[in-house]
Amino acid sequence: MANALPKPVQRLINEFARLPGIGPKSAARLTFYLLRVGDEQALELADALRDLVERTRFCSVCFNITEADPCELCSDPNRDDHLLCVVEEPLDVLAIERSRAFHGRYHVLHGAISPVEGVGPEDLRIEELLARVAQNRLQEIILATNPTLEGESTALYLQRRLGDAVPKLTRLARGLPVGGDLEYTDEITLGRALEGRQEL
Amino acid sequence: MYISHLSLTNFRNYGRLELDLSPGATLLYGQNAQGKTNLLEAIYYLATTRSPHAEYDNQLLNWDAAETEEPVVVGRLVAQAQTATETKRLEMRLILERNGRARPNSFRREVLVDRRKMRLMDLLGHLRVVLFLPEDVQLITGSPAERRRYMDITLCQIDTAYCRSLSQYNKVLEQRNALLRQIAEGSGSLEVLPIFTDKLITLGSQIVRRRALFLAGLARETQRVHYESLTNGRETIRLQYLPRLAGNGPPEQESVASGEWLSTEEATPTSIKTQLAEVLRQIQPADIARGVTSVGPHRDDWRFLLNGRALSSYGSRGQQRTAILALKMAEINWMTAVTGEQPILLLDEVMAELDAQRRAALLHTVQSAQQAILTATDPAMFTAEFLANTTSLQVSNGRISYAESTGISGQ
Questions:
Q1: Domain harbouring A171, CATH code
Q2: Residue span of the structural domain in which A38 resides
Q3: Which positions in chain B touch A151 (Cβ < 8 Å)?
Q4: Across the interface, do B179 and A115 touch by the CB < 8 Å criterion?
Q5: What was the ipTM of the complex prediction?
Q6: If residue B138 lies in a helix (H) or strand (E), which one and from where to where?
């Protein structure tokens, strides 16, 4: 059977279909939407993609995604140089920033140790972290990896590697969500919340 | 506990079913392949989140009926569960994965308890069941995996902490095995291995300890039921735990020895942990070479001993059947003792295979249960007296109707 679709159309469908969460049907729908919607919007999308690729990079200090190097967070003189927060992904930086509760610097690992997915320590920005720690006088490192098996394992690995290189090594507390209901909290979370209870 | 109402949508051969159930015994009868077993399976699924048959999980949905509907929520199982103290509405939704290109027929499961969305695991413990199947006897002759599955599903119904440890253990094991393979190939980090090993030891020793306690309790009850109700004291049955806690000698001898050690007072949480840590350390080079973790609860087994000999090799078919019946009846007593509440009994065509004495013993158990649901192709195999105290329902092609002639059917 001959392929009825012109090559450029098929090419875009294929590209969309490679994205996570998009199947062949959605890919075709998006492609035909762009054909219909007019040149301007389609070219804007193309432009945005080009911009994304050409104008962003990893910050050479914290490895967050940035336009300028070093990034805004690393070059901000008002942030505390003695505090470092280690996270798995750039989106985690955003989440912690939204909390407005942290004013130190960040380090983005770009993942967590997961042998099943073929991710080992050498695939993460761990050597860069160690170098950073060696060069700066840090008072505290906060390990803010996810409370999953992979995140926990990464934190434990970092603990081994960091050793006494920093006076204080902490891990984010685990416990009750704000607005949560004790009755509906699972035993593990509740147990951890009890362990991590604080004096009033 | 009992179920007062069951509602099914697109589950197996049921397009739609609303069924009121009462405490006491309910008999589902009808020709083969009409949906009797599917009804038991729905209840079992709501209680355990597992299908009675490991390999069937993908066939739960009624795909024919599902295709005609909007492809969002596809299947739904709802049960109203009554315990001594509360009523809970348990709901499981089976949702078609629209983007499942790799596995087009896959579905996602969603759990709601009293209409609140919960994790799958939170469904456990609200409904407890003991299931009798004709093929249960395969527990004796089948693979160790089947016996572990039985142990895990039974324990998970009463112990959510166990269930959680088990699921975490399996994740850690998968990561550790992947890492062992990578180390063997030269790409994995030896520095990361102890992190997964430590987690494996902590979770693994909890699992081993829990299983040892569980089997010891179940063994005592099985022995009692077997001796008193089923064999008139002629035979003695034992359940023997065969954990994989050692790695040097012949596996069977070592497992027997480890199992015996676990029943002594020496086996404290700390000493089990030390033992597992020690054996994992000893066999680490071999495990790296093979790319698998070769000891631990994922390799556990257990067996029946009849008069001191392995039932799988020396027992007759009849003796094996009696042992399974004793195990299942003991499971009911054990669950009742541990939780203070009787589980619901689900019996699929099991009466036909039993001789008069065993059938009488099982019927006695059924009649003293708070709720029991039985299936049979022919209600005539039951006595008139039994049927008079039983709700009989006819199952025909995914529909259920109240029987006219048999007993006091209620509505």
A1: 3.40.1360.10
A2: 7-55
A3: none
A4: yes
A5: 0.79
A6: helix B138-141
